[in-house]
Structures are given as C-alpha cells and as structure tokens.
Design goal:
By secondary structure, the protein is an alpha/beta fold. About 40% of the residues lie in helices and about 15% in strands.
Length: about 300
C-alpha cells in the first residue's frame, strides 16, 4: 500500500475513472465527471487536483493508460495494477495566493523578468516577449504576429475590466503552441494568477474575475484534457504550488530569484511561458509587444521595461 502525503483541495472524495496518461513522476486520472486528478511523486509540487505521494515511485512502471481507478473511503485503488493508496491522514493543500499591489512590487517584478531573461527565455513565448533573440523560423514569425496582435488588446481589455473581451482574446491563445500543455495555456495560467493576486487589492480586477468563469468555459474545448483542467482551476483561482510560491515571493519580496528559477524548471517551456503570463498580468509593459522582425545576425540584449 502506498500513502498520500497531501491532497489538493479540489480532489473529489468519491469518484470512478480511468488512467488518462502516465509519466515517471505524474499520473493523470480522468474521472467520470470530467475532472483530472493527478498523482504526484514527492519531487513534484502540490496542485488543487493533485494527490502527492509520501515516497518516490516510478509511476510509469506500475500504471498504464486505460486502467480503471476507484476513489472511495479514503482509498484510491487501481485494481489492475494492484495499487492501493491510503488517503487518510494526508494534509489538505489549499495553495492560497497572496494579494499583490503591482507598483509596490516593481523591484520584485524586475527580478522575475531578469531571471526569466537569463534562465528561461529560449523556448515557447519567451523569445517573442522578452526579446531574448529574434525569430528564426516561419513558425516563430507567425507566433510573434499572433502575440503582437492579441496581447495589446488583452492588456486593454484587462484594464477596462471587460470579461467578454478578455475571453474573446484568450480564445486566440488557448491551445496555441507545442507541448503537453501548449504555450498559450501556460501563458494564460500565469496571467490569471496575476489577476487573482491583484484581485486581492484591486476591486475592478476582483469584479472581472467573478465574470470570467462563465466567459472562459466555452474555451476549454479548444485544448487537451490536461490543459483544460489547469485552465479550469486557474479561472477559479487555483494554481500549482510553484506558481503560488512565486506569487507569494513577489508579494513579500523574498527569495524572488529562487522562486522564479523553480517555476522555470517546470517542463520544457511551460515554466517560462507561465512566468511570461504572470509578468504580463502584472505589467504588460514588461513584455515586448511589437510586430515581428526577420532574423538578424546578432541578438539584442534583454532590457527591462518597468521603471
């Protein structure tokens, strides 16, 4: 029998489902109700729909897509794999996100951007948004064109607290880009984390967030099941542990670089895309929102925009 160390606040107590996808340190379980519950080994951070094990296990050696899963009476069972996980005694992880006043945290945000430029700006949206290097392929030029059109409009819609306009522009980003969780989905998750933390200090943003749940729901069908759960949680103010830690670091101006680095280590480009979205949600002028340019012989240095 395995033992759970912590359980995300959104994990259902009773559910039946099947294994959706398995990796060495994560296993996604799709319930009959359409939720995605994720088994996590100790090296992974908590999440709202996560069950974090107390010990390291190579999950892909035990579990396979399509296996039936049952959650009931504080147990998670995968009968075909002879896996039984004891959920009793596990702590509940809530991942409360700190309120952030953007102008009071300008120095911390510059630290986040500087760290992004130095350590995570070569994949996904980052090259287009922080100017780490010019576009060097037709795909990157097309991506720059999409972002240079959508993001200024998203910044304006956010400033006007227009939920319908925000959702309409977000529709251009959901499912955009490569990856298990596409770059556009990661970016929007970071953006929504910024809004939820700003909503603790800004009434207009708090009002916007109350309307976004309904506005975003039609967009979820545009992406895969893993991203869909991530975006559903984000719209409801639920985020993965590393992102929560980064927001809290910005709010309190403590260990900002360390928290940024840990977030950047998520996936191939997911961490960098999420941090880009977070910065955009706080201060769009920290992003390079210009029209695409052809490749040049030398890259321009990365320069901060918030003063």
């Amino acid at each position: 029998m395995w033992r759970a160390d912590s359980i995300g606040e959104a994990v259902p107590q009773h559910a039946a489902g099947t294994v959706h996808s398995v990796f060495r340190h994560t296993c996604n379980i799709e319930t009959a109700g359409g939720e995605l519950v994720t088994l996590l080994t100790p090296i992974k951070g908590n999440s709202a729909h996560g069950v974090k094990l107390a010990h390291v296990v190579d999950l892909d050696a035990w579990l396979f897509a399509g296996q039936a899963v049952i959650m009931e009476q504080a147990l998670l069972r995968v009968p075909a794999a002879a896996v039984l996980i004891n959920l009793s005694g596990a702590s509940v992880w809530r991942g409360e996100i700190a309120a952030v006043r953007v102008h009071a945290c300008a120095a911390a945000l510059r630290q986040v951007r500087s760290t992004l430029c130095e350590r995570g700006g070569v994949h996904g949206f980052a090259p287009a948004l922080i100017g780490s290097r010019p576009a060097n392929s037709a795909i990157e030029l097309a991506l720059q064109a999409r972002l240079s059109s959508a993001l200024p409009a998203l910044a304006q819609a956010t400033g006007c607290h227009d939920s319908a306009a925000v959702a309409g522009i977000a529709a251009q980003l959901v499912g955009l880009g490569p990856g298990l969780t596409p770059s556009g989905d990661d970016f929007l998750t970071g953006y929504l984390a910024a809004l939820w933390s700003r909503g603790g200090a800004e009434c207009g943003i708090a009002a916007l967030l109350k309307r976004l749940d309904v506005s975003f729901t039609p967009l979820f069908a545009r992406t895969n099941a893993i991203s869909r759960q991530m975006l559903r949680d984000a719209v409801q103010g639920r985020f993965a542990e590393r992102l929560v830690q980064l927001v809290n670091a910005v709010a309190h101006a403590r260990d900002v670089v360390g928290a940024t680095v840990r977030t950047l280590e998520t996936g191939h480009s997911s961490g960098a895309d999420t941090v880009c979205g977070l910065l955009f949600g706080y201060a769009p002028d920290m992003m390079r929102l210009t029209a695409p340019t052809p490749r040049r012989a030398h890259s321009k240095p990365c320069v901060g925009a918030l003063t």
